[in-house]
Amino acid sequence: MSAYLEDTIAAISTPVGFAGIGIVRMTGLKSFYIIDKIFKSKAKAFESYEDKKIIYGHIINPKDGIVIDEVLVSKMISPNTYTREDVVEINCHGGIIPVKNILNLLVDCGARLAEPGEFTKRAFLNGRIDLAQAEAVIDIINSKTNKSLNISMKQLGGSISRTISEIRDSILEMLAHIEASIDYPEYDIEDVSYDLILDKTKSTVEKVEQLIYNAENGRLIREGVNTAIIGKPNVGKSSLLNALIGESRAIVTEIAGTTRDTIEEYINIEGIPLKIIDTAGIRETENIIEKMGIEKTVQILEQSDLVLLMLDGSLELEEQDIALLELVKDKKAIIVVNKADKDSIVSVDNIAKTYDKEVVEISATQELGIDILKKTILDLISAKGFEIESFEIISNIRHINLLQQSLICLKSVINTIDISMPLEIISIDLKEAWNLLGEITGDTIHENLIDQIFKNFCIGK
Length: 461
Ligand SMILES: Nc1nc2c(c(=O)[nH]1)N(C=O)[C@@H](CNc1ccc(C(=O)N[C@@H](CCC(=O)O)C(=O)O)cc1)CN2
Ligand SMILES: Nc1nc2c(ncn2[C@@H]2O[C@H](COP(=O)(O)OP(=O)(O)OP(=O)(O)O)[C@@H](O)[C@H]2O)c(=O)[nH]1
Ligand SMILES: [Mg+2]
Fold this sequence. Notes:
Elements: H1 3-6, E1 9-12, E2 21-27, H2 31-38, E3 39-40, E4 53-60, E5 67-76, E6 87-93, H3 97-108, E7 112-113, H4 118-125, H5 131-142, H6 146-156, H7 159-183, H8 190-223, E8 225-231, H9 237-245, E9 263-269, E10 272-278, H10 288-303, E11 306-312, H11 319-327, E12 333-338, H12 348-355, E13 358-361, H13 370-380, H14 397-418, H15 423-441, H16 447-455
Parallel strand pairs: 1-7, 8-10, 8-11, 11-12, 12-13
Antiparallel strand pairs: 1-2, 2-6, 3-4, 4-5, 5-6, 9-10
This protein binds ligand FFO, guanosine-5'-triphosphate (GTP) and magnesium ion (MG).
Residues 231, 233-239, 252-254, 256-259, 280-281, 338-339, 341-342, 363-366 line the site of guanosine-5'-triphosphate.
């Protein structure tokens, strides 16, 4: 055990503020020794209580005998605990003072303040969970919709590790095979080896590619689809934002150039979070403030996953409309023709044909066509009917990067076989892919990186 794990650590695990109860948590070798000094229950010594018992009593400052709080204390005996160490949880009164006083007392009695994520880090270092499971814990805390929570819960159960282990095992088999043919060249198994390894690598590439593909959906579900509403001034962009979120968030006027800065709102379409960004109308302009808004729109366009390009259906298309249609040509975009409550001038069919994009007619102010627009959005981001139960969804950006790097190595294996390089060369790439995938689960990872990962947790987790 590292010296680091020998410390007994403590932290407040609930939000500090106006609340019914607060929990101060402690883990480590000295947990029971420390709690015994400050906790008084009916006659019994702390040591005599059984595992997973909650005990009523008082926290008392041993220096002056002053009662600090009336509490319930949970006792959890190593190794069947969250951290695999002895754990004590003090359920005290909520608010700021009781929890802080108790934490201070624990520190006075020999505990050290826990760093962010240190409890979960211990669960990992002591082998209860792997790294991907530990990272799922933080994703659970950060989840914004039930769908993203479901993904993280599945990962907490070890789904990533099972998927990745399978892939790593098949890579390991290939490595063993190569080793054997290098060690016993007299068996002349090289030709067989090339075919076998080529087949196996190809199927591994497919699996990794599938995971990366699913991950894209995972990211959208977790972080939300960045959706920008763009269009010439006065077409009704802010009105659409309001219609989508169902309230008057953005200022709407008949004056072109009303929206000067961008406005962001989250909406939820069948569990998929959309971050909708209302932008300033785009046109050639002399007005400097407006111009800044427009530059921002172009930037936003670059960062968006989806664009809603809005046209005013009651007016002839202008040069600026055409320019915008050209601008979104290579983007995931829906053309929204607004003001359908008025006589229509713009030909929807023509636009659909010319620009090869979905075109939806709506009236933002009359709230016509909004449901069809939502359905079109879901179809386009191909997230509708996306059954997360039937896929392994890797959503963590660190994991996705590692998958992508390992994919490069695996593809290089195929390339190496194509040009008939010796087997030794192949095994270098295979080994690298195996190592990279191991970093996802924490099997092959450096200590610095582990520290980095747990720093993103909150204190007390
Ligand atoms: N009060 C409290 N609530 C909490 C937590 C906690 O630590 N304390 N958790 C913290 O995130 C979550 C629950 N997660 C937990 C996961 C594993 C174990 C645990 O003790 N596992 C042991 C024993 C299992 C058993 O008895 O069957 C083990 O796996 O060996 C505890 C909590 C959410 N709620
Ligand atoms: N008849 C009709 N008028 C609409 C509709 N949608 C918006 N309008 C009107 O069009 C005008 C401009 O609407 P906004 O939502 O402010 O337009 P915008 O695109 O955000 O404009 P800027 O922020 O100036 O770029 C307002 O007077 C709205 O009431 C619609 O569906 N039908
Ligand atoms: Mg506006």
